[in-house]
Structure formats: structure tokens, C-alpha cells
Amino acid sequence: MARRTMSLLPHWSSRVFSVELNGTPFYFSTQEKHRGEEVPRVFRGNDGRCYSLLVCSSDTIRRAKFYAELKDKLLTNLPPECHLSPMCSFLPNIKDSLLKGYFLKDTSESSSPTERLLRDLTQRDPVLVCSYLRGETGGVWTQHLWSDGDNHTMQMPKDYYVVPAEAPEHHPSTLNIINSDVFYSFEEAYQVLEKCGDIIPEARAVLELLPSREEARRKPDFPVIVIEGLDATGKTTLTESLRDALGASLLRSPPHCLSPMRARFDREPPLIRRAFYALGNYITAEQIGQEGMKTPVIVDRFWHSTAAYAIATAVSGPVCNLPAEGSEVYCWPSDLLQPSLVVCLTLDPEERRRRLRDRGQGKTEEEQELDHNQLFRLKVEKAYQRISGPACVTVDASPPADQVLQQVLLLIRGKCHL
Hints:
Blueprint: H1 2-8, E1 16-21, E2 24-31, E3 49-55, H2 60-77, E4 82-90, E5 99-106, H3 112-124, E6 127-134, E7 141-145, E8 160-164, H4 186-195, H5 201-209, H6 213-216, E9 224-229, H7 235-246, E10 249-252, H8 259-266, H9 270-291, E11 297-300, H10 303-314, E12 341-346, H11 349-359, H12 365-372, H13 374-386, E13 392-396, H14 401-416
Parallel strand pairs: 9-11, 9-12, 10-11, 12-13
Antiparallel strand pairs: 1-2, 1-4, 2-8, 3-5, 3-6, 4-5, 6-7, 7-8
Helix pairs in contact: 4-9, 7-14, 10-13, 12-13
């Protein structure tokens, strides 16, 4: 841990810190000299003690799992007067520089229980702890980085003053999306599950099911049509009707062979969960290559869904926080088979909710989030629209099913010459 701390120090004063309060990020940074700057918003009116915790192990698996467990650990062991807020630290516009953690305000009478817990964390876990002290005059705040060497706090080479920072050009969570929340190659996703083999037995079972890279991008003789869209937009009805109308094979992603393992990976942090679903696309691609030598192939969801849900989940806040259109985040993986056509079904939110109620089936956590969180739904839909190579062709799914079928058949015949 001391080595990791030292590796961060040369760029420490270049880092920006973001604390999220009620869904709104507030930014601050540090500098060696105070020049009369105002107090950052997150510290205003605060009479308690403040701390930040940033998870920073160079082991990506350990970092992901510890961050997923950290909130429960803090809520269980901290005094009730402590208040947690999500936070992160990053180097503006530098990929993979994001460190995630929590900002803590402690209004309890004694700091001893809190600081005892935080010192224990620095001894055993991949976490950097900073304390923030308010000066006696003028409300100036300073930041102190803790050391893990001898159970005592150690200041950085100089005291750093806390000052407001401008909001970055791009939302900080976008810095770590590539091959962390969304995977763009077989190899990157494979390496994550390979490292999990000793702690997640199901990971080894997934690796045994994987095709070769050549099989995952083999171009079939017949067209491949992917049907995308949120739950209850009519994908199942349409894909089955297309199968019958075209004499096609029908596949689903994630593939059926991964069904017994989905519940296990859905409990894992995003890095591991997303790698699992990314590899599911390569298994589906192998199946597409095999079936596509004999008939056209219809696929119920593919990489668009994997990416759109991951991007919408990773990026907090409003739709404008998403990576801009044209960002590399939306580019199709170069080693994954590309469909001939991708159709995305859209539906009025109220009608979609009505269909979900009528269906009465169980839903994943992300699907439940779509039901009650309009913002999350809008971000998923926007991400669908921005994915390229191939892009989605949007179709309104509100007319009767036979009319939607005829409209999609016209698209297929025009694009795929069937």
C-alpha cells in the first residue's frame, strides 16, 4: 500500500476530487498555496470532521471487489452520526486515472471510533484515507494523506489547501469505462474471468465454454439480424415471428448455456459481471457462425444491450453526462462478428410498464431500475442510439404485432435482400 501511495504523490496536486451529494457532483482540488479562494461547496457549513477513502489497488479484481464491499463495511462499523457520500478522484482527461471511494462527514462527539476503523482499513485493505482539517481563521481547509506504515498519520510532503475546481469537460466515470464497464475485445474480458478462477469457481466453467477468437468473428453465409430494445417492447414476439417468416434460426444473448451462472455473476461487482456478459456475446457469435452457414439468423439482443446498460449504469447523473456521440466508447469490438442489421424497438414508457405488469414475470435489478427510474431509461435509450458499427435502426413497437413484423420484414428485405 505504501508503494501505491508513493506512486500517486507526484501527480497528487493535479488530481480533481468529486463528491456526489443528492445526485449532484461537487468538485475540489488541492494546491500548495492558498490565494484567498472560497471554500469548496462540499465543506461549507460543516462543523464536523471530514475524511475521504479512495480504493486504489493495482490489482483490478481486488480493487473491484473491495469497493463493492466497502460501503456495507463502513455503514456497519461507523458511528450513526457519520454520513457517507460517493466520491472519486481523477486526472482530467487521463484514461484509467479514476479512483472510486466515499466521502465521510463525522459529527459524533469523539473521532476515536471513526479514526480507529479508518486506520484498520489502511493496514489491511487497498484504500487511501485523507483527513480534512479546517483552519482556525477564515474557514480554510487542508488535506492530509494517511500512511499505513506505523499506525500514525503522515502528512504529504507539504500541507495541501483545498480549493474549488471546475467541472471537467467529460464526466469522470467515462475515464474508466473501456475494458472495465464495457469490454471491446475477447482477450480483455477473458483475462478478468481467468483471474477470478480461484475465487469464483463458475468463472472456470465459463472459460471452458468459450470459442476460439476465429470462431467468434466467422462471417456466416446468411444474414444476421439482431433485435434490440428494453424489456416488454415486443422482442420475443417479433423474433419468433421473424424466425417463422424467414425460416431462420433464433438465438438469444446471453446464450442458454450461461443461464445457470447468471445469478452468481449478477452478484459480482461491475468489472466481473460485465466481463461475464461480454464473453457471452462471443459464445453467441460462435453459435451465429454455425447456424448462419445454413439459414438466416435472428438474435434476441447482442452487444448493443451489453454496452448500453453498462454505460448507463456507469455514468451517474443526467443524460448529458454520457460520452458524446462519436466517442470510442460506442464502437463495436473489432474481434466480434458484426450483424447485417440491428433493429431497436421503442415504446412509450407507460405502454411498456403496462405490458410488464400484464406479463408478471421476474426482472433483473437493472430491469427493475428501468421501471421506476426514467433517467436511467433515457440513458439506456440514448446509448443504444449512439452505438455504431453497426448502428441501430429504430422501429416503433406500439402498433399491433403483425404491423411491426411487416415493417421489420421490409427493412430486412431492403438491407439483407431476403
